[in-house]
Amino acid sequence: MVKIGIPRALFYYYYYPLWRAFFNSLGLEVILSPQTNKAILDDGIKTTLSEACLPVKVFFGHAMAVAEQVDYLFVPRITRVEPKAYICPKFMGLPDMLRARLQNLPVLIDTVVDAGREGDSIQCWEDCFQEVGSIFTRDKQLVDSSIKAALQAQGQFKKRLNEGMLLPQALEDIDVAEVAAALQPHLTLKIGLIGHPYNLYDPYISMNLIKKLYTLGVSVVTPESLTDNEIEDKSNKLPKRLFWTLGKRMIGSALNFYQNRRLDGLIYLTSFGCGPEALVEEMVARWAKQRDDLPLMMLTIDEHTGEAGMLTRLEAFTEMIKRRHKV
Ligand code: SF4
Fold this sequence. Notes:
Elements: E1 3-6, H1 12-25, E2 29-32, H2 38-47, H3 54-67, E3 72-74, E4 77-80, H4 89-92, H5 94-101, E5 107-109, E6 112-114, H6 120-136, H7 140-162, H8 167-170, H9 174-183, E7 189-194, H10 197-200, H11 209-215, E8 218-221, H12 228-235, H13 245-258, E9 265-271, H14 275-290, E10 296-301, H15 307-325
Parallel strand pairs: 1-2, 1-3, 3-5, 4-6, 7-8, 7-9, 9-10
The chain binds iron/sulfur cluster.
């Protein structure tokens, strides 16, 4: 059976159900790289430029981890997933960066995904899959039915997220779900956790941030629980529209969380070396100054961040909130 490799990084956290359903329905085997570990991170660091952000380094490590086991590596060249806004340039250049830096890669499927016009956010994936499907079959009906299966799977995934399921649960990673269920009765605080899903939900690079918060008695709400419309509505309140899709998601989520009176605090997890985030971070920090009842903590991670230091900061932050509330 033909094997398709998918690196467990970056847009995996947004689109894996879509991709998996499409390839499986076409009759191909999907091989996912393992969870991030030290070897994967070290490989990523060795093969990328030092200027790359941490998530891109992690992506390289994952591509290497799966490359030898597969016939094709799926690295779509994602440019726009909605009209009038762009994905970070590092995503657009991923296939080129991989080719430039890694030897002996399997065939890269780097089909362009570009939602240029109104209503294209789904159409761009249909166009991509039509092109990808033609690599493997001439059966147009099979490609069409695989696209339908893929869109259904993605719709169910988004529905599970909007119903409040944490992303790893929605992706059927039960590890986090088990911990959450076990600690549920002891959770006394609720914190809005802002950040890209490839940082928040990668247990290795986030140093198990979500689990740590659970063990400190904190439940979390993340941008994934908001609908696209909720995020868009809030980000549209800015005097000037942001043209980075991921930055818009962070701004829209932060504004939504700021207006959510049931939250006890906010944590914003960013990665060192992220260009688009430099602006968003500053805006969120300014809003924080206007709401002294909702404390904000910024956590910036890179490959050198130490787990003990992060835990100390989380403990101090949650303790400070508990004292304010006298929990
Ligand atoms: S948005 Fe930032 S963190 Fe994400 S890939 Fe681009 S530069 Fe890296």
